[in-house]
Amino acid sequence: MRLMPLLLLSAAMLCSFAATPSSAANQPSVLPTGTTVQAPPAPAPTTPAVLPATPPAATVKIGVIDMERISSESAMGKAAKSTIIEQQQKFQKKLDGKKHQLEKMKAHLEQIMPSLQPAQREAKAREFQKKVEELQKFGMGAEKELMATKEKLTKELIAAIEQAAVEIGTTRKLAAVVVKQEVLFLDSGVDVQDVSEDIVKQINGKPHQK
């Protein structure tokens, strides 16, 4: 009988404890009376970074040359062309003379062949064939020698052009010197300078060394 009042008292105490707020938000303020809480100051506005101005792109200077013009206008190119034509004419004259002799021989053989013995006709035929082979050999040799002359003179002219291009490109501060016929595209920022005339003058100003 004494246990019941004790249980009822414990239950009442538990109910009273449960009704007491435990959240920190409901706790009484510990600040003195009249004291206000100030919000932290707002961050200062961030000044945008100023990027350095991009310097304008430097203009690229390119020199171009016309090989055909240099070959036809330079003293060295004219001399090379004259040498090749002279040698070609000399070979052609010799070739024409040999062909004329061979045609005369052929006409003569056609006249006498019927009156010759088989062995004689065979000997004449071999002689004529030998002359034909000699003519062919001369023509091939002349063509080979003419090509060798062209190649030699062309290499000498190109070497002179390259040397002149280096000197002119260095003087004018060019980024490159190229052959005009090989240029397919150039950007608008490229300064193109035709230096063909300067190349001609540069070559003509130096004696040609064979």
Walk me through this protein's architecture.
- The chain has five helices and three strands.
- It has 210 residues and is mainly alpha-helical.
- It has a domain of 145 residues: Skp domain (Protein Binding, DinI Protein, Chain A, 2-Layer Sandwich), CATH 3.30.910.
- The chain has a three-stranded parallel β-sheet.
- Helix 2 runs parallel beside helix 5, helix 3 packs antiparallel against helix 4 and helix 4 crosses helix 5.
Order of helices and strands: HEHHHEEH
End-to-end Cα distance:
143 Å
Return the CATH architecture of one domain. 2-Layer Sandwich
Shape: rod-shaped
In helices, the fraction of residues equals 55-70%
> So, the CATH homologous superfamily of one domain?
Skp domain
Total number of helices: 5
What percentage of amino acids are in beta strands?
5-15%
Strand order of the largest sheet: 2-1-3
Query: What is the CATH class of one domain?
Result: Alpha Beta
Mean pLDDT over all positions: 81
CATH structural fold name of one domain: Protein Binding, DinI Protein, Chain A
Number of strand segments: 3
Query: Main beta sheet, described?
Result: 3 strands, parallel
Secondary-structure-derived class: mainly alpha
Q: Radius of gyration from the CA trace?
A: 53 Å
Q: Which parts are unreliable, with pLDDT below 50 for 5 consecutive residues or more?
A: 1-37
